[in-house]
Amino acid sequence: MDLKDYFPVWDRLTVPQQEILSQSVVRRMFSKGAIIHSGEADCIGILLVRSGQLRAYNLSSEGRELTISRLFERDICLFSAACMMNSFQCDVFISAEKDSEVWAIPPRVYKAVMEQSAPLANYTNELMASRFSDVMWVMEQVMWKRQDQRVAAFLLEEAAIEGTDQLKITHENIANHLGAHREVVTRMLRYFQSEGMVKLTRGGIEIVNPGKLRELSE
Q: Which segments of the chain belong to CATH 2.60.120.10?
């Protein structure tokens, strides 16, 4: 993959602008569980996901986590460059959910090119709007959906991402994604098991009736 694969407006940049971005890219590798970005005070630049999987999440004063976005191959992460955009100030943390390779474009470099290029600025604004929509969707789920619906939806999403109904995930991990207490998640999962929707195993969850889970999530 090249930079042009991430930016649909690449051909609308001048050759010098393309060269500046290409020469500034830094390749970085992160092991599963690594913290990549630590809130608003951190600013490592635009991240382009080459492989693996990243997770952007908010951290409450009580230490509870809430996933607001998950990023996969070919995704662009803006949360790690909030410092260069005055309208995009947010205290978001980013971690590697799997061993990941990313390209990082320094914030000062990207901002300089963005100030010269209207197409890149417009595309970046579109990305920001999309990310804000993701955040708003998560907030709506937290505010208006029952916990059992959210847990059911998460299990189905996780199965789709991993391509299997045999999920290697802990109750604590699910709670962190949903901004919930682990005890609440455990209670929901035990209820799902009693209803024949899942089977709980040591360090994992097997989905045995995805149709019933889907009905509940909707």
A: 3-142
Query: For every one of its 218 residues, what pLDDT tens digit does the chain have, with 9 covering 90 and above?
Result: 789 999 999 999 999 999 999 999 999 999 999 999 887 667 888 999 999 999 999 887 777 889 999 999 999 998 888 777 665 556 789 999 999 999 999 999 999 999 999 999 999 999 988 888 888 888 888 888 899 999 999 999 999 999 999 999 999 999 999 988 899 999 999 999 999 999 998 889 999 999 999 999 88
Q: Which CATH number fits domain 145-217: 1.10.3470.10, 1.10.260.40, 1.10.357.140, 1.10.10.10?
A: 1.10.10.10
Nearest to 48 by CA among 4, 89, 105, 87: 105
Global confidence as pTM: 0.81
- Count of helix runs (H) and strand runs (E) in the chain: 7, 11
**CA-wise closest residue to 180 among 146, 136, 214:** 146
CA distance 186 to 150: 13
CATH code at 3-142 = 2.60.120.10
- CB contact at 8 A, 97 and 34: no
